[in-house]
Each structure stands twice: as C-alpha cells, then as structure tokens.
Write a structure and sequence with these properties.
Blueprint lengths: L3 E8 L5 H14 L5 E8 L5 E3 L4 H6 L9 E5 L7 E5 L4 E5 L2 E5 L9 H9 L8 H8 L1 H10 L7 E5 H6 L1 H12 L4 E5 L9 E3 L2 H12 L4 E6 L4 E9 L4 E2 L3 E4 L7 H5 L5 E4 L5 H17 L4 E9 L5 E7 L9 H8 L4 H13 L1
Parallel strand pairs: 1-2, 1-7
Antiparallel strand pairs: 2-3, 3-4, 4-5, 5-6, 8-11, 9-10, 9-11, 12-13, 12-14, 12-16, 14-15, 16-17
Length: 353
C-alpha cells in the first residue's frame, strides 16, 4: 500500500504559537508511520517556513526553529506543483503532497488566511474552509450568523479600538447604558485560547479590559455574563457530522482564561455523565445546527453554556481545536470510542473526501 504523503504544519505568526507546537507534537506522536509519509513544516513566529527533521520534543518546546539543518520551504499556490517547494542554496526541489494537516491556532492560521493558500494549492487539507474559518474566528460574525440561525447566545455589543481611542468616556457610557449591569466579558473578536479576554466588574475595569482587548484586535466584543456550566462538543464530519461525548470545563480561575487552560493544574475537564439522554441529544443537535450554519467541514469544537434551567447558549467555535495530550476535542472522541490515532485517520480521510 502506498503511503499518504502528509504535510503537518505547526507554529505560525500567532499569539497561540506555543500551543500549536504542543498540539503538533501530540499529533505527530499519534500518526501511523505505516500509513503516512510525514513532512514536518514549521512556521516561525516571524513567519519563516521550514521543512524540519526535528523530533517531537524539539517541536513541543520550540527548539525546532534553531536547527541548522532546517530547509526553507513553502506550499506552492501553483496547482501543477501540488506540494512543497524546498528552497535550497543552488536549486529548488518539489515534493508532491497528498494532504495537509494544519495543526495551527489563532490569527493567520485558522482564520481563513492560511486556508486561502491551501485552496490555491489544490491540496486537500484538514479542517473547515476559508469562509467557515474566517467567520468562526470572528466572534462578532459568529454572533450574526448564529442569531440568524435561531441559536441562543449571550447578549452583546461591538466596540472598535478606534472608537475607544477617539472618545473613551462616550464608549464606556454606551456600553454601560446598553447593559446597565456588571459583570461583563470583554473579548477581542479575532483571538483564540482566551487571549486578551477579561471579566470586568465596574467602569474602571471596563476601561482597562477594553484597552487590553484593543491591543489584540480592532473589533472588540462585550458580552453579558451567562451563569451556567461550561460545556464543549466535538463535531466531526462533512455532509453528515457526528458529535462525540459532551465535555465540561471546571476552571480554577474566575473564568477559563489562558492560564487556566494551559498552565494551572487546578483546572480540569471531564465528560458529562449527569444529564438526561434527552438533554444530551438536544445539545448534540444544537452543535450540528451551529456547525452547518457556519459552513464547517471536517471538525470543530463548539462551546456552550448550560444554564440551571437547561437552556443551551452558544459561547464560541474553534475550527482547529487544540490537540495536546490534555485537549478536550480528542478526549471527547476517545470517550466516544474513537482513540486518538483513529481520530487522526478519520480527519485526514474527511479532508481527502
């Protein structure tokens, strides 16, 4: 049997560079070498692309970027190439690729920018396409599409960084007049992994939270606080998406921020086992509705709040969710009877479908 030539992309010009490297090391450790001929393509923080021979430990801790034997490489947008171009000192070498697995997160990686290049290349790739990636990454656009699809979500207003800079007092007045209550959540519209997010309890914190979010994005989402359980769903498929077991987040902090997700051992996640089959079905059906409304393919992790009166409220989408050893997307599928290596096989098959 001929092996599938698989290019695994990791890193990227993103605030989630480190998480991507950890995810990629886990993916690489679980790919079946009997099925795949693997090409590891790392993207540095300043945007340089390299074919690397680094092992998974070097990728995990970022040392891969310092290897002297890295070769400059790009994915060619020329479909007659349909693969990688290795840029050596005196020559250019072409390597044909069957599928690309972008194990990347955040801006310039899962927001449709990278997917546009992959579409031009004509090479199948894992995860949703350009429009679904861009719309799912932008929390404000997600709100508009989900609202049109009749999905329950937190009330919100949009603030721009330029508006805040021009007249901070008027901006704060507008937000306070709209909600007339605290606490509120402040989120950069186009960041992931809770980067730049804050929970604010008064006007002073509102000003600081908006200023921090403005450092990450021009567009800022201000949301009401929803009191409820934080639950996650793992959706897999193309035309007939499936949903795995449902997960729950137990954060050690006031909310599930970056530190709680990746650094603090006090946070934990688990599989829900205390809800009725009817409610579980409703959650899964809602996840599929969101997945289809956003035009997703392949996979997405869709996060909800579950209130005390069993209302299901959309929080956000993640089209290329974390694949670290503690990430919930593979954990939820493992609980559903699909082990990590088999999940990777299915994702690659869906891409090539």
């Amino acid at each position: 049997m001929n092996k599938i030539r698989l290019a695994v992309l990791f890193g990227g010009v993103s605030s989630e560079y480190e998480v991507s490297c950890v995810s990629a090391s886990s993916v690489l450790d679980n790919l079946d070498r009997d099925k795949y001929e693997i090409y590891k393509i790392g993207i540095t923080k300043d945007g340089r692309w390299f074919l690397t021979m680094a092992d998974t430990e070097q990728i995990k801790d970022g040392r891969w970027a310092d290897r002297k034997d890295n070769i400059s490489a790009v994915i060619s947008p020329d479909r007659s190439c349909r693969g990688l171009l290795l840029l050596k000192d005196t020559e250019t070498e072409s390597i044909r690729i069957d599928c690309i697995y972008p194990v990347v997160h955040g801006k310039n990686c899962e927001d449709g920018v990278l997917q546009g290049l992959l579409e031009l290349s004509g090479i199948p790739y894992v995860g949703p396409g350009v429009a679904a990636s861009a719309c799912s990454m932008d929390k404000a656009i997600t709100k508009l599409i989900a609202g049109a699809a009749g999905i329950n979500q937190a009330d919100y207003v949009i603030v721009t960084a330029s508006e805040l800079k021009a007249d901070e007092t008027a901006t704060l007045d507008r937000v306070e007049a709209y909600f007339n209550k605290y606490p509120l959540f402040i989120k950069p519209a186009n960041e992931g992994s809770s980067v730049g997010i804050s929970k604010v309890h008064d006007r002073a914190e509102l000003g600081r939270g908006l200023a921090e979010a403005a450092g990450y994005d021009e567009k800022i989402l201000v949301e009401e606080t929803i009191v409820g359980r934080e639950i996650e769903t793992a959706v897999l498929g193309n035309d007939k998406p499936e949903v795995a077991k449902i997960g729950e987040i137990f954060s050690c902090n006031e909310f599930y921020d970056y530190e709680a997700k990746y650094a603090d051992i006090g946070s934990r996640t688990g599989i829900i086992d205390d809800i009725s089959p009817e409610l579980e079905t409703q959650i899964k059906e809602t996840a599929v509705r969101v997945f289809k409304a956003m035009g997703c393919k392949g996979m997405s992790r869709i996060d909800f709040f579950l209130t005390e009166d069993n209302r299901i409220i959309l929080n956000e989408l993640n089209t290329l969710p974390g694949f670290t050893s503690i990430s919930m997307y593979p954990k939820m599928w493992e609980a559903a009877g699909v082990p990590y290596p088999q999940l990777l096989d299915r994702l690659i098959a869906l891409a090539m479908e």
